[in-house]
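User: These chains co-purify. Model them together.
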Amino acid sequence: MSQRKKVLLKVIILGDSGVGKTSLMNQYVNKKFSTSYKATIGADFLTKELLIDDRTVTLQLWDTAGQERFQSLGVAFYRGADCCVLVYDVTTPKSFDTLDSWRDEFLIQASPRDPESFPFVVLGNKTDVGEERRAVSAKKAGQWCQSNGKQMPYFETSAKDNLNVEQAFEVIARQALAQEESEDFGDGGFGGDVLDVNGMMERENSSCAC
Amino acid sequence: MEFRVPAIWRDPGAPADSFYEVRPECTDVPKTRFRIKAGKTLSARKWHAAFSPEGHLDIGKTLSRIQHGGIHPSIRGEVWEFLLGCYDPKSTFDEREQIRQCRRVQYARWKEECHQMFPLIGSGRFITAPIITEDGKAIQDPIVLLQTNPHGAVLTPQNTSQAATGLARNDTASTTMEPEFSFVEVQPSSHVILDKKEIQWKLTLHQIGLDVVRTDRPLVFYEKQENLSKLWDILAVYAWIDKDVGYCQGMSDLCSPMIMLLDDEADAFWCFERLMRRLRGNFRCTESSVGVEAQLSNLAAITQVLDPKLHQHIETLGGGDYLFAFRMIMVLFRREFSFGDSLYLWESPI
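Assistant: Joint model of the two components:
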């Protein structure tokens, strides 16, 4: 058997204010949805352990504030990321239009070694509102995901009704793991993030000050 | 001089949060640790006794009591007006009344200016989706359409309280005020705004709305749409008069207590304005930094001197930038403590 290190995968969740980044994360990690969320100030993170093809990985999910003016914090928060999740709200066209700038900004600030191959996953959230209030079609979103060089996985989710959330994060985790492994082969990449997970993460116990 | 009571007979005190009622279904809010105690907490009686017949306030005595036991919630608003520096303790009742009236007029004037630019200000309703593009063109967002034109849709109390997608409307206002703002009147789609300041301001309005529907929602106080729109109005007016800062996430957490403590909207505005004089630096952002980062470096420097071992430990963990304290300082521990406890923390200078 290979003596595998415990892997910490860092995932950054980005998107406009109010699209449901915190709700998605909370639904995935804590299986809860609340109607009284608070705006995220700066950033928060939650962790979750999961098994990917009998490998235990720790997913560290970074939830960020949506207001544009916090973008300068990106350099600090995005460092060492293995996957970036772009979230928009299917009822707000502008939140879809800004995906371009969220992606570009991420690539500038995180500066991954190979921007072309860095994994992004796109989530269109709030599908529970019903077709009559939807303002961005699945087709349009799908096209955007394809037009960016390599195909970005795309999911339509509802954090409120817990639709597609588990499936989306499973893919996110797999993408992050693949990225992490490719970085490992490729001489470190940016900042080795196979940290001393034993020391630090176990005490964290899937929670933070949220 | 105070009569010392044996410990077992001493007033156990009322929990500080009993005055700020939480909706019963919200069980995950922090519990209060601070208690209001007779004899320690500044009471209404002690407060009123601290004024001379003309209205001069003995601030020294009052402050030391606040430091020991906080302020009773029934008088918190009027005491805070002094703590925040809205009024000089050496002024008289009459002088203060005059200043208050002037300030109310000034606030009304600014609010009217804002109302002229965007008629939803002061209407009891607000928006949570963008209304304008960076180059000043109106956005015909379906959510905005619903929010500005309540007759276009059936709104129920359930979906008005939904965070983020919330369709915000003041129920009482809609019955008393007839729909003078149809969508077209609010923003004609052909109209392009050229004034940069106005564009900048309008770009923040939906962000304020998005945060208003997410601020202190577990409190019964914010079940009233009227109070939500008060918060929106004050933050919108503030963003207009302080253009360097405008609106930044976190400010709604700081403004919310003022609305709860002061009944008059203009008075609440001026308390918030005073608070922001001290804190606005934290919210000023540039391309490369957020204002609060200066405070974080100070915190790092202080910790390094006071507790070098702790500082070293934080550095080892990779937290040397102290960004973990970002939110704590940005909203002055509003998220770490219960509503009542954080107010107690704010009013008790160490």
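The helical segments of chain A are 21-30, 74-78, 93-97, 99-110, 138-146, 165-185, 197-204.
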